[in-house]
Design a protein that fits this description.
Helices cover 0% and strands 43% of the residues. By secondary structure, the chain is an all-beta fold. The strands form four sheets. Strands 7, 9, 10, 11, 13, 14 and 15 form a seven-stranded mixed β-sheet that branches. Strands 1, 2, 3, 4 and 5 form a five-stranded antiparallel β-sheet that branches. Strands 6-8-12 form a three-stranded antiparallel β-sheet, with no helix packed on it. The protein is rod-shaped, with a radius of gyration of 32 Å. The termini are far apart.
Length: 208
């Protein structure tokens, strides 16, 4: 048995060199089952070659066997180990999913540790979104609690599922800004209606 991607042409003595051999010495009979393995994504036709002491006969399948292209997925933010936002703010999660032969369903999850994402178990992960379209490449995350967070992306087509793990996003405490005046410092200080006065103050925000 032989396979060829995208074409049924050449299932004959002259063209068989363009085909990939799948199995040899298969038994003859009626309704015989033969196991084959195809790993490359795409549409594959099957060619059979039967040889006896005198003749060689070729036959090609009337339809193709489609090998699914597994989705690919990755994060663009957060990545690494040092992305940080303050409590009460929002982060835009950036990601992408690609699947050349299907429109995938995409879902995001969040957890305070990175385990059990890439193995597909999703143990301890909390759903962050409902199913998103494959074309969606961002999602908002509201940082309501101080902790370290990771995000897991699940991309599913009709046959296979892929997972991607983000980097760590650190949600730090939000320290309120501080503002003090040093001038005016005299109660009831007066200026004329045509003069200017310089306010003197100190403003600081340790985390922004």
């Amino acid at each position: 048995f032989y396979a060829r991607a995208g074409s049924a042409e050449g299932c004959d003595p002259a063209g068989i060199g363009a085909w990939t051999e799948l199995a040899t010495n298969a038994p003859e009979g009626s309704a015989v089952s033969q196991s084959i393995t195809l790993s490359a994504a795409g549409s594959h036709y099957i060619c059979a070659k039967v040889v006896d002491e005198v003749s060689t006969v070729f036959a090609v399948s009337s339809s193709f066997l489609r090998v699914n292209a597994k989705p690919s997925a990755h994060f663009d933010f957060p990545t690494g180990d040092d992305d940080q936002i303050v409590k009460g703010s929002h982060a835009t999660l950036l990601f992408s999913v690609s699947d050349p032969d299907d429109n995938d369903a995409v879902r995001l999850y969040v957890k305070s540790s990175p385990g059990n994402c890439l193995d597909g178990s999703l143990t301890g992960w909390t759903p962050l979104t409902a199913d998103l379209a494959e074309s969606v490449t961002s999602s908002d995350y509201a940082a309501v609690s101080e902790a370290s967070y990771w995000f897991c992306l699940k991309a599913t087509d009709p046959l296979e599922t892929s997972f991607a793990l983000s980097g760590r996003l650190v949600v730090s405490p939000n320290v309120a800004p501080n503002l003090t005046f040093s001038s005016p410092d005299v109660a009831g200080a007066r200026i004329s209606s045509t003069s200017t006065f310089n306010l003197i103050y100190a403003a600081a925000d340790s985390d922004s």
